[in-house]
Amino acid sequence: MDGRSALAPIADKVERGERLTRDDALALFHSTDLLTIGRLADQANRRRNGDRVCFAANQHLNPTNVCVLRNTCVFCSFARMPQEEGAYTRSLDEVFAEADAARDNPTREFHIVGGLHPKLRLAYYVDMFRGLKARHPDVHIKALTAVEIAHLARIEKLSVTEVLLALKQAGVTSLPGGGAEVFSPAARATIADKKLSGDEWLAVHRAAHRVGLPSNCTMLYGHVETMADRVDHLLALRALQDETGGFLTYIPLAYHPDHNELGEALGRTGTATSGFDDLKNIAVGRLVLDNIPHVKTHWPMVTPFISQVALTFGCDDLEGTVVFERVYHEAGAGTPMWLSYDQIVGLIRGAGKEPVERDSLYRTVRTFEDWVPGQSVAPAAGPDGPTFQISHRPRARATGRRALPVLSAVDAAE
Ligand code: V47
């Protein structure tokens, strides 16, 4: 059977709006008939979202890159040991100063994630979110991955639900989808041995949904996972969504192999995922996750060009202005650090879609019938962009530790 006829029964199911099975999902991942997969995903997406493509005017903040999992999450280029070159931990005033860039921008969402710092307690985050809310009352806070929440619960000797309630009270509106990686225990043992398990990740999101905090979900692809691992990951997300309905968007995350041990071990340095696989992951995600309202493309990882094409491969949600992205740029992403509001609107319009600015809860903030390119709002950063610097880890384990730590205000106070 050629690739096209192999997908014919799946095409019939998509036409009828029927749920795809595990075998269907496997057939899609194994197929090289990308255009058919894309067309089916586009059909599924249009049925749900029409021509609308949403984005958030957002700013990413990473309060610390110190992480107790630094030596075992071998795919990550962002984390540092406390004394390692490039380690940083921001004081609250430093976080507030970075967030103040939002004052001159149309920012609606702070996306806040960091490492598992051994000493930063729940109070640091609660004070941060309260302080941000007081300074930027109209900005939503999407903060802390399931991994960070489980870590806080452990060091505070609280339940996950107690931590979630404290975060919610401090102003958190939703959770980002990071830390899921791929749930397969075998793949996880290779790439993230000591991280919370897939079941634990799902349990944190279940608890979040139960206390009224919606969340995003992700899958890290393009490393050691098998096609069956991808499918089982998507089916686990679909099952939780059937139970709670709390996921807002699904974001496939493309593995970047630079400046991390896994990339070196795989001999992949400088070779990220292919555009083919990036588009296929978007499209299969849309087709399998029939109960998750949105699928988001993360342009800092896959480039704005692939993200724009993804908008006709089943994707209706484009990562926003970002302002300063550290996690993927540490891992070798060659994409811009930020896109202006106008660039994002232009990318969506350029794909023949209708841009919709949304908030973190996917409520419409603005539509663009009257949009004039270059005249709507200020860019998300000055003409030269933000002034922060990325300093890559030299070679992770081999040369990672240095005698002289880079101390931040918080470390110095301890
Ligand atoms: O969990 C880490 C990934 C994630 C690498 O919810 C890497 O809206 C590729 O979850 N190559 C954190 N990926 C970021 C994240 C996220 C991003 C954008 C939007 C949202 C959202 C969430 O970044 C980690 C991990 O899967 N990551 N290192 C790397 N070398």
Give the SSE map.
Blueprint lengths: L2 H4 L1 H9 L5 H9 L3 H16 L2 E4 L2 E4 L30 H8 L9 E4 L9 H14 L4 E4 L2 H11 L3 H11 L1 E3 L10 H7 L6 H13 L4 E7 L5 H18 L2 E8 L6 H5 L9 H14 L5 E4 L1 H12 L6 E2 L22 H10 L3 E5 L5 E4 L28 H4 L9 H5 L1
Parallel strand pairs: 1-9, 1-10, 2-3, 3-4, 4-5, 6-7, 7-8, 8-9
Antiparallel strand pairs: 10-11
Helix pairs in contact: 3-11, 4-13, 5-6, 6-8, 7-8, 7-10, 10-11, 13-14
Bound molecules: ligand V47.
Gist?
By secondary structure, the chain is α/β, with parallel strands linked by helices.
Give the mean pLDDT: 89
Runs in which pLDDT lies below 50 for 5 or more consecutive residues are 378-388, 396-414
Shape, per Cα inertia axes: globular
Main sheet: strand order = 6-7-8-9-1-10-11
- What is the count of structural domains? 1
Oligomeric form: single chain
Number of strands: 11
Radius of gyration over C-alpha positions, nearest whole angstrom: 20 Å
Give the helix/strand class. alpha/beta
Taken in chain order, the helices and strands follow as HHHHEEHEHEHHEHHEHEHHEHEHEEHH
Q: How would a textbook summarize the main sheet?
A: 7 strands, mixed
The CATH C-level name is Alpha Beta
Q: What is the CATH third-level topology name?
A: TIM Barrel
- The level of helicity is 40-55%
Content of β-strand: 5-15%
Provide a count of the helices: 17
What compounds sit in this structure? ligand V47
N-end to C-end Cα span: 66 Å
CATH superfamily: Aldolase class I
Based on the structure given, which CATH architecture is correct?
Alpha-Beta Barrel
